[in-house]
Amino acid sequence: MKLAFTTLGCPGWSLGTMISHARQYGYEGIDFRGYQGEMEIYRLPEFSTTLEETKERFMEAELEIPCFSSSVRLFTESKEEQKKYLEELKQYADLCEYFETPFIRVFGGSIGDHGRGEAVDIAAENTAEYLKVIEGRPVTLLLETHDDWTSCQVAQELLSRVDSSQLEVLWDVHHPYRTLGEEPEQTWNVLGKHIRYTHWKDSYVKEDHKRGYQLCLLGDGDLPLYRMYRLLKDEGYQGYFTLEWEKVWCPEIEEPEIAFKQYAHFMKKLEQQVSSGPTMKF
Predict the structure, then answer these.
(1) pLDDT tens, 75-123?
(2) Are strands 140-144 and 103-107 parallel, antiparallel or unpaired?
(3) Tell me: the pLDDT tens digits for 206-245?
(4) How many CB atoms lie under 10 A from the CB of residue 62?
(5) What is the pairing mode between strands 202-205 and 213-216?
(6) In 3D, which of 244, 220, 235, 229 has the Cα closest to residue 279?
(7) Torsional sign, CA 230, 106, 155, 172
(8) Domain Xylose isomerase-like TIM barrel: where (predicted)?
(9) Which CATH architecture has domain 2-276?
């Protein structure tokens, strides 16, 4: 089992603290979604002028950067917005080559009042331009099951239109189940052959919360995490199990020192229980 966490969960940590805790808690990777208050990390010295030092620190710690979680949207409202995302994608594609990172997370994006057919047309056209940026590079864009592209059927429609091995899927196991009631088996049956990477979180329904649910430590909510993990293992999934602890957006949740350690323990216990055989509710 390969574990990673996104930096969304530790906005106050330095690079050294991230690396130290990753090793201490048993992680193999760190997925960058912002650092030190800057969401687009290529603007920072650690990922521009002092790249070599950053790479050396990861190599010495025997850690990977399995994914750069960008802000790129496939659906855009204007050519100006598309151009902005193209420039961002170029920056992350360069970082991927330098750090030997295989994936860049992208969003489908909110489609607003646009019809689904029109949105798919626009997203497919934009994606064709984005793919030119990574053509010939060992990099794959991962469409996250998120926002207006959470449904497996909707995501599959876009994948079919684009029809490229450099556009695959990041299965955020939380969003389809919690926001749409999509069972994990349904998600896998439609998208399984495209799933290369996963994000993990847990929650419970809380009607007075602005989202309608409250994020919580894994196992404290009611997502069928055992079923999800067992499904992935039974289907031969070999990718990362990445904790997306949304501390930046939800400051009320536990501190990373608690959540990151708990996640590693929880997932390793889950692995042991799946290996032991009998199906059980977790």
Answers:
(1) 999 999 999 999 999 999 999 999 999 999 999 999 999 999 999 999 9
(2) parallel
(3) 988 888 999 999 999 999 999 999 999 999 999 999 999 9
(4) 9
(5) antiparallel
(6) 229
(7) positive
(8) 21-268
(9) Alpha-Beta Barrel (3.20)
